[in-house]
UniProtKB/TrEMBL annotation:
The lineage of its organism: Eukaryota, Fungi, Dikarya, Ascomycota, Pezizomycotina. InterPro entries: ADH-like_C (IPR013149), ADH-like_N (IPR013154), ER (IPR020843), GroES-like_sf (IPR011032), NAD(P)-bd_dom_sf (IPR036291), Trans-enoyl_RdTase-like (IPR047122). The keyword Oxidoreductase applies. One of its GO terms (molecular function) is oxidoreductase activity, acting on NAD(P)H. Keywords: Oxidoreductase. Belongs to the zinc-containing alcohol dehydrogenase family. Residues 14-343 form the Enoyl reductase (ER) domain. This is Chaperonin 10-like protein.
């Protein structure tokens, strides 16, 4: 194995990235060293590049989180991940590693904590595999944030429904897939051009969020279907008020729960007897590790093996390798709809 590798290094806040060499690290006891074959891009990547948020404690920095690749070496304590040569996907962020540049996706070799590494089925390409990590982690964390365990399995007799506002984003598509697995009847919003995809992923009904009467449309559908809607996931900004307007009509006397993936603004709207929580993994390191393990070694591994969990949304491949990440992030920043940008490395 090479003693050093190529990396897209962020020299200071605002970028741009510089291509350079970094020493290839040895994995710590609980780490997996992975040869990166594809990275997927997320909005938080250009926020970190441009604004240093979420916080980047060390410059030069290596950012990015979503990878698919090949196991190069296992740490001495790792027993849950297949050995060298195996195809895997991983959440390889440096965010929970105090900014350590040995972690972070935008380089040819990176470390990931073993809890956040799972096998990539032969039926999926590296590009398809790279779309899962952050979107799956975010969408499943929404449920546990509002107290819904990942082993929940409602039956049709329970009549439990959920609203997912912003279902065509990568997080939204996995929110739909995971909500269906939990046994919810799923109501979702998206642009009309994405409705077929959202239904294919498991939504019972999909609504155009721009329709002037979208709130009454959803309330009527829920009442006609005779289900109980008092749970929601706001995936995108601007979703909280309409979501609360719907819950006000559908929750009855029940305690309602709303997971909010964007940062909650100061003075955000509220609703009586309704819990509104920012979607975030546990702050405690041990609890967070257990949660990440539940997501990657539980729900995702099982779903990938059974074929019930599929890559979503559509993939937009951008060329240029590590040298193309900067331009690809600019494309993401300028706006994409219903697609996930992936860069082969």
């Amino acid at each position: 194995m090479a003693r050093e590798h190529e990396a897209a290094i962020l020299p200071q806040k605002g970028g741009p990235f510089a291509l350079g060499k970094r020493p290839t690290p040895e994995p710590g006891p609980n780490d997996v060293l992975i040869e990166v074959k594809a990275v997927a891009l997320n909005p938080c990547d250009y926020y970190q590049r441009d604004y240093g948020m979420p916080p980047v404690p060390i410059y030069p920095a290596i950012i990015g989180s979503d990878i698919a690749g090949i196991v190069a070496k296992l740490g001495s304590n790792v027993t849950t991940v297949p050995g060298p040569g195996s195809r895997v996907i991983a959440f390889a962020s440096s965010f929970y590693q105090n900014g350590s540049p040995d972690h972070g996706a935008f380089q040819k070799y990176t470390l990931a904590q073993s809890e956040a590494v799972t096998s990539l089925p032969e039926s999926l390409s590296f590009e398809e595999g790279a779309v899962f990590p952050m979107a799956v982690l975010t969408s499943l964390t929404a449920w546990t944030t509002v107290g819904i365990p990942l082993d929940t399995r409602y039956t049709p007799a329970d009549k439990q429904a959920v609203l997912i506002w912003g279902a065509s984003s990568s997080v939204g598509t996995f929110a739909v897939q995971s909500a269906k697995a939990l046994g919810f009847t799923v109501y979702a919003t998206a642009s009309p051009k994405h409705h077929d995809l959202i239904k294919k992923l498991g939504a019972h009904a999909v609504f155009d969020y721009k329709a002037s009467d979208v709130i009454s449309q959803i309330v009527s559908a829920v009442k006609n279907d005779g289900v109980k809607l008092h749970t929601a996931h706001c995936v995108v900004d601007g979703a909280l008020q309409p979501t609360l307007d719907i819950l006000k009509e559908t929750k009855g006397d029940a305690h309602a729960k709303v997971a909010h993936s964007p940062l909650l603004p100061e003075g955000h709207p509220t609703l009586e007897n309704t819990q509104i929580k920012f979607n975030s993994p546990p702050m405690d390191k041990a609890a967070r590790g257990e949660h990440i393990k539940d997501v990657f070694h539980g729900w995702l591994k099982t779903g990938l093996q059974s074929g019930e969990v599929i890559p979503s949304p559509a993939i937009q491949v951008e060329d240029g390798g590590l040298g193309g990440v900067h331009a690809a992030l600019d494309k993401l920043k300028s706006g994409v709809s219903g697609t996930k940008i992936v860069v082969p490395i």
